[in-house]
Amino acid sequence: MTRSPFSARSPQHVVVVGGGPAAHRFAEAVLSVEDHHVRLTVFADEPWVPYDRVQLSKALTGPDGQIDLTLGGGTVWQDPRVDLRQGVAAREIDPAARTVTAADGTVSGYDELVLATGSAAARLDIPGAQHALVFRTLDDVAAIRAEVKRLRARYGRTPRGVVIGGGLLGLEAAGGLQELGAEATVVHSRRWLMNAQLDEGAGRSLNALISARGVRLHLGERPSGVGLRKADGEICAVEFRDSADLEADLVIVATGIRARDRLAYNAGIETAPRGGVVIDDACRTSAEHVWAIGEVASWNGECLGLVAPANTMAEIVADRLAGGRSTFGSFDTATKLKLAGVDVASFGDAYGETEDCLEVVYADPARGMYQKVVVTQDARTLLGGVFVGDAEPYNALRPLLGRELPGEPGAYLSASGAEAPAGDLPDDAVLCSCNNVTTGAVREQIGCGVHEIGELKKCSRAGTQCGSCVPMLKKTLDLELAKAGVEVSTALCEHFELSRAELFEAVRALDLSSWDEVVGRFGTGLGCDICKPVVASVLASQRDEYVLDAGRGALQDTNDRALANMQKDGTYSVVPRVPAGEITPEKLIVLGEVARRYGLYTKITGALRVDMFGARLEQLPEIWRELVDAGFESGQAYGKALRNVKSCVGSSWCRYGVQDSVGMAVRLELRYRGLRSPHKFKMGVSGCARECAEARGKDVGVISTTDGWNLYTGGNGGATPAHAQLLAQGLDDDTLVRYIDRYLMYYIRTADRMQRTARWQEELDGGIEHVRAVVVEDSLGVGEELEEAMARHVDRYEDEWAATLKDPERLRRFRSFVNDAAPDDSQDYVLERGQRRPATDAERAAAEAGAGPVLLTGPRIPVREGAAGATPAGV
């Protein structure tokens, strides 16, 4: 550590103006310098402890008041050397007298002053703009949430939101509006979104993906005003000079940021023509003993609104105050994020502006995918890259910026299907750009005995800010442990030393049939929430017996024990299977009558099924008896099993259809229904290359061609979407089914607990080539055995709800109270868009005060019979 020249005298008093991320990093850095006797006074004009603005969208879309964005847990502000003055803004600084006057009238002298005032949201100079909201602070988040709620109550419909600005903040705001239940339209002056980070190809791919998620786009035009109704002054439109107005109930402006440099300007400190406090390479301003860091600082005529340079500036000033000589040079502009569920990343020379550079591009506009790697003319040195739709290559490529690639550039484009060369990162490669952590620093921590990813993040600081480097951090950890010969535990949990795959084979070899037998042979203790459901799944997938019998009921998760998914209000959802989405009018009528009779909220899912919400536990047998009598069976929406097989209409109706996709989808869904697995899985069958069933986004995807079926595997949605990879092509019906049998059984036998097919397939040694060798070429000689295992499942399958209804003992578990068969009628609901939903705490309180909505109470809602569109009685 740098030793301070001030250690022999009284503590150095440093005043920090600003309470954002840059101020937080400076406080951490200056307090960590050995022998630097310092005390800090920090003026934060917001009432909050400094929080992470990068994660602000989580506060917008998460549970109200339950998202904590406090940086570093707030521990630095508990240091006795720090006086954090929350909600107290600095009003004036006097560099000559070295004083800061606060808004409350107090005057603080300083030895050194650090300006970390950050930036404010830009405002539009158009009529009516003063009525628009912005998206920059926690107060802004609260205002947006409150306005959406107010508008919904005022108009009784979905509010219409318009976001002006198609950059990062604008897209986050649009996604947030959707999550809050409002419509979202993005207005952007350029023809493609995020034009500051993405070239045209990437930007237009992003346009397509964002539009596909229901966000409307109005591109290539600036607004001329925000229209207000004369009657009540409410926002009614966003206006344009050359096109029709957009209807709007609320408007959010997210067109950029402006440095908060007024305090410095008034004190005579030099500011840049385009805004910001001018600094040199040491972050010094034009005034003695005054420094500037973060978004307010203008370096080489530019304010840098990124995390990495702000952190670097903070550490430079901390080092300088302790007698060091560090300087600010180049900075990392890399960006990786997920906007409205879409992966976007760019780094380095994303526009390909370097002279004589080469651009290696993979573009698939139909899928909204764009990947580009920029290299030198000899195709050896990496200059930059941009990725939309699939940003997986970013993790491996960004640390190699400016270095020679180990292999061909095209091999790094995951969309190309090529296998990227593996190789360790050099020690001086920056693994975490936010905190400037090198790979060598990470290796040093691993060498000192840090072998857990959570502890490694804490000790090295890598992955603690934006988190985009965590996959590479984990890969580095695994590689270093492998080199050192350190055995990485694959134990299922503290009760089983075997991995899930090892336990599966052991249970199969010994033909064990109960928890007691399994834990007695291979485990210890009473088990836990990890191993019990795993053992239950293993037994279910091998024996295909009633999932809640033979001592296995107590092992299951809550949803499995009820054969239904529990919802937020304690009620359950009912999801009958609708193979391939094909359903007769008679069955549709049954679903409608059941939902109306029991007052269930209904929704068509993306999986081509009808979800019915709000059933009490004791109602489930009644509901399912009606459904089973009508020919329905369980959709296994509650289990780690096959959820559905999605299909288009194929050759049955579509003029582009090549084969009968519906028939194949029905065949597959009926074959694999009820199949328990390490994780839930889905399938899709498309009748032609237009891919209306989105088969390549499924664990198993089938696409029809003129040569036969093409089989794709290892795709999925969820938190980390992945496109399925081509396993085999030109298959006839029976060969297709045989390969799927093998694939699923091999996955069930070898995958880890809660591991999706995409991650399992990636982590297999050899990846898709290994899977192809086992499934298609039968390289392990187990193909026939895997097919036989699947055949046994098909022969033994019995609908779980049909089996439940036949047995009075099984029905006993469906009671709200163990010692009372009476229903639980303690739930409150409100009517919204013609259906009931759980009431919020605020709505209950308002109803009790006589000012809120009418509450509907009880386990079921009687309805007026007769007229179409019948509503719950009393409403």
TrEMBL record:
Keywords: 2Fe-2S, 4Fe-4S, FAD, Flavoprotein, Heme, Iron, Iron-sulfur, Metal-binding, Nitrate assimilation, Oxidoreductase, Thioether bond. Pathway: Nitrogen metabolism; nitrate reduction (assimilation). Residues 567-628 form the Nitrite/Sulfite reductase ferredoxin-like domain. Coiled coil: none annotated. Residues 825-858 are annotated as: Disordered. Residues 639-778 form the Nitrite/sulphite reductase 4Fe-4S domain. CDD domains: NirB_Fer2_BFD-like_2 (cd19944). Residues 334-400 form the NADH-rubredoxin oxidoreductase C-terminal domain. Residues 431-477 form the BFD-like [2Fe-2S]-binding domain. Its EC number is 1.8.7.1. Residues 13-297 form the FAD/NAD(P)-binding domain. It catalyses: hydrogen sulfide + 6 oxidized [2Fe-2S]-[ferredoxin] + 3 H2O = sulfite + 6 reduced [2Fe-2S]-[ferredoxin] + 7 H(+). It comes from the Bacteria. Residues 830-846 have a biased composition (Basic and acidic residues). Its cofactor is FAD; siroheme; [4Fe-4S] cluster; [2Fe-2S] cluster. Belongs to the nitrite and sulfite reductase 4Fe-4S domain family. Catalyzes the reduction of sulfite to sulfide, a step in the biosynthesis of sulfur-containing amino acids and cofactors. This is assimilatory sulfite reductase (ferredoxin). It comes from Kocuria oceani. The gene is nirB.
